[in-house]
Design goal:
By secondary structure, the protein is α+β, with helices and mostly antiparallel strands. It has a domain at about 15-75. It contains one helix and four strands. β2 (about 35-40) and β3 (about 45-50) form a beta hairpin. It starts with 11 loop residues before the first strand and ends in a 10-residue tail after the last strand.
């Protein structure tokens, strides 16, 4: 049996990497995502649950508005009751 693909309305865990360093206080503005800055590589990873594709697009618009180049975007396959895989 082929598993049903996730719907664009399902919550999912995402990892988003951008060029530039963001401080932890940006987490609230990015809907509570965990922010991990790597000052040596001048990159920041944002990770956590995103409620749906609309919310993901909102996060990407915020990244664009800050002028941060997007380096990486990955959707983790998990269910809301599982631990975050990052």
């Amino acid at each position: 049996m082929i598993p049903k693909p996730s719907s664009h309305t399902d919550p999912a865990v995402y990892q988003i990497k951008v060029r530039g360093c963001l401080a932890d206080h940006w987490s609230e503005w990015f809907d509570g995502l965990t922010i991990t800055a790597n000052s040596e590589q001048e990159e920041t990873t944002l990770a956590g649950w995103v409620r749906d594709q609309s919310a993901l697009h909102g996060l990407l618009a915020k990244i664009r508005d800050l002028g941060l180049p997007l380096l990486f975007l990955c959707r983790q396959e998990t269910k809301p009751n599982q631990e975050e895989p990052y």
